[in-house]
C-alpha cells in the first residue's frame, strides 16, 4: 500500500510504478501511457499515439489548409513525416530556430496569409510552439509581432 511500506519493501516491488535499480534507489516511471489533450485555448495533444488522432481532430475542427510549423532538426529526424500523412494540403514551415526573432515570425505569418492557411499545427518543442502561436497572432491581427510586445508603442 502506498504510504505504509518500508524503503526495502519498495525495492522489492510493492509499488508497480517503482522498480529496483540494484543501487538501493527506487526509480519511478515517468512514461506517458495515454494521449492527453490540453485546451487553454490553444489545443495541445501529446502522448503515444497522438499523431494517429490528428486526422480526426482536423476534421472535427473543419480545418482545410493548415500550416505545419516545425524546425529543421525535427524534419531531418523524420518526425514531421508521420504528421503530414494525416494532413491534406498542408503548408510546411520548417525554419524555426531557437529563440525565433521578429523577422522569422513575420515572414512565416506572411506565408500563412499568402497561402490561405486556416490553422496551425506545431510539431516540436518550445520555440516551435511559441512561433506557431505568434504566427497566429500576426496572421489574424496584422502588423508585426513586435506590435504586440508589452510596452512597445
Description:
It is a single chain. With 153 residues, the chain is α/β, with parallel strands linked by helices. The chain contains six helices and seven strands. It has helices at residues 7-11, 54-61, 72-76, 81-84, 102-114, 126-141; strands at 18-20, 26-28, 36-39, 43-46, 66-69, 91-93, 119-122. Strands 6-5-7 form a three-stranded parallel sheet, with helices on one face. It has a two-stranded antiparallel ribbon with strand order 1-2. The radius of gyration is 21 Å and the shape is globular. It starts with 6 loop residues before the first helix and ends in a 12-residue tail after the last helix. Mean pLDDT is 82; it is low at 1-24.
